Amino acid sequence: MPRSARKHSENGHYHVILRGVNRLEIFHDDEDRARFLDTLLRFAREDSIGIVAYCLMDNHAHLLLNAGDNLSVLIKQIASSYVYYFNRKYDRVGHLFQERYKSEAVDTDEYLLTAARYILQNPQKAGICNAMDYPWSSWRDTVSGTGPCITQTLCDVIGNRQALLEFLEAPVRDDGFEAENRRSVKDGDAHKLLCRIGHVDHPAQIAEFPLKQRNDCIARAKAAGLSVRQIARLTGLDRNIIQRA
Question: Per the domain annotation, does 97 fall within a domain?
């Protein structure tokens, strides 16, 4: 049966997962992770590809890329260079990565934010450590706004860096990324999130904000996964106002 064509991203963003063949480890130690990261950064620069987020685990790597039409070129370059290093170091032959890497087109701002959170929370979900303490992800780049990752893209979507960090620290509720992206936020969590976003004691206070401040809070709440109906119910705002915001 022929393989289905990969979905094209209109804005050039993709969530890529590279897994070890037969679920074998692709990183045995920190030297391997450093080599992979150096390889990724080098070819990304050469191919004009932006790295939005990444996380390197033992037997797989998550990459959130603004790759345009150069995604397959980058993956081939990484596979060639890193696998050569890995096989030589461990005196092995053959494939290291699964033959067909997984990639998802990230076509919306909400999906971009959710993909970044899913990627950065991988170590925490695996029980390794808190996401912010894991040294082999782009979390520190995201916090500082410096480093090789273009984290400003995420800030621009949600409003500012503080709002982004609040979103990234919110717990991911489901084992599957696609399911998490579809699932709505429970009202209790939504209430707390709106209070944090607006720095208020109750979400209804957001309705009293000046127009620009109110719309900014609504936009951030929607980007965090709250539905229009949910925001309306908790803030008392009309749904048309929320949709326009």
Answer: yes
> Do residues 123 and 55 touch, judged by C-beta distance below 8 A?
yes
Cβ pair 54, 63 in contact under 8 A: yes
Structure pTM? 0.70
Alpha-carbon torsion (88, 30, 48, 169), positive or negative: positive
CA 29, chain centre distance (Å): 24
What span, in angstroms and rounded, lies between the C-alpha atoms of 57 and 192? 31
Residues 6+ apart with CB under 8 A from 242: 218, 222, 228, 231, 232, 235
**Beta bridge partner(s), residue 104:** 15
Q: Which domain holds residue 73?
A: 13-169
* Cβ atoms of 103 and 8 closer than 8 Å: no
Position 56 in a domain? yes
Render each residue's pLDDT in the chain as its tens digit; 245 residues. 445 556 778 788 999 999 998 889 999 999 999 999 999 999 999 999 999 999 999 999 999 999 988 899 999 999 899 999 999 999 999 999 987 788 889 988 888 999 999 999 999 888 899 999 999 999 999 999 888 999 999 998 888 898 899 889 887 654 444 444 444 567 788 888 899 899 999 999 999 999 989 988 888 888 777 888 889 889 999 888 887 77
Token readout for 79 is 């596979």
Tens digit of pLDDT for each residue in 211-223? 989 988 888 888 7
Alpha-carbon span 139 to 168, nearest angstrom: 9
Contact assessment for residue 174 and residue 180, using Cβ atoms and an 8 Å cutoff: yes
Task: Tell me, yes or no, whether 199 lies in a domain.
Answer: yes
Same structural domain for residues 161 and 189?
no
Angle between helices 71-89 and 30-46 (to 10 degrees): 150
